[in-house]
Amino acid sequence: MAVSTKSDRITGILAPVLTPFDRTLAPDPKRFVAFCRVLRQLDIGLAPFGTTSEGNSLEAGEKLALLDALAADGTDMGRVMPGTGTCSIVETARLSAHAVKLGCGGVLMLPPFYYKGVSDDGLFRAFSEVIQRVGSKALRVYLYHFPRQSQVPLSLALIERLLKAYPGTVAGIKDSSGELANMQAMIKSFPGFDVFTGTEAVMLDVLKAGGAGCISANANVNGAAMVELFRNWREPGAAGLQEALTAFRVATQDFPLIAALKALVAGACGDQTWRLTRPPLMDLSLEAEDQLVKRLDKAGFKV
Prior knowledge:
Blueprint: E1 3-6, E2 9-15, H1 29-41, E3 45-46, H2 60-72, H3 89-101, E4 107-109, H4 120-134, E5 141-145, H5 147-150, H6 156-165, E6 170-175, H7 180-189, E7 194-197, H8 203-209, E8 213-215, H9 219-232, H10 238-252, H11 257-269, H12 286-298
Parallel strand pairs: 2-3, 2-8, 4-5, 5-6, 6-7, 7-8
Antiparallel strand pairs: 1-2
Helix pairs in contact: 1-2, 2-3, 3-4, 4-6, 9-10
């Protein structure tokens, strides 16, 4: 399996699931659930409400409703890791507690990101307060390190402190820094701490170092190829699989990521409402979409 819960811990490939909107820019639970079914059929885990999901453009009630829709559809919630980190400890605790109630395998938690230059003491206090408010041994927190976007990095010293204070609860991290050395340092420093790379471009190296898998935006459209590498990273052809993943990422990197992925999904399923993004993002122009499709076709990629 490309996504497993050995000792109730998630590993493998997860997609920060794109959020479909209707013409009023409200989330569409029916299309969301249908898309998640497709991902799960490909053995891709679900990490809704991350960056690619436009998670910070969704309010708490919308996220809760989408999670409830997934559970009502019979989704194996042990393979779901929703993003719950917000700037409010109250909202973060509310989302995280609901995820635990539904049996989610973990929650992906950004630090409070509005205030910059905060100390490790302040970040520890924020994570600690949320964990205590949820108050459940079933909670599994996966930290979300994305310093370029959040401007609030998570240091090794902070991670060590959280692991000592909440062993078993603080389970892992998604590292979207792109810095392989940082991921390798976490894997080496914290045995049993599950490190997911946020970019498939270094996936093979992270797996070789002992990483848990990959949570990448491109899993929404190129996840099957990521699953193949995860299953076969010890095999002789693994380097070639990694090269193909990197080539796909390079082919798409000049386009606004979320809008580009939504345009690709829209083209694949014939539903143009998939192109819709919430402000302040802009939908991909038809000209840019044409360029993207031609670039992928030239490189031999099919969504």
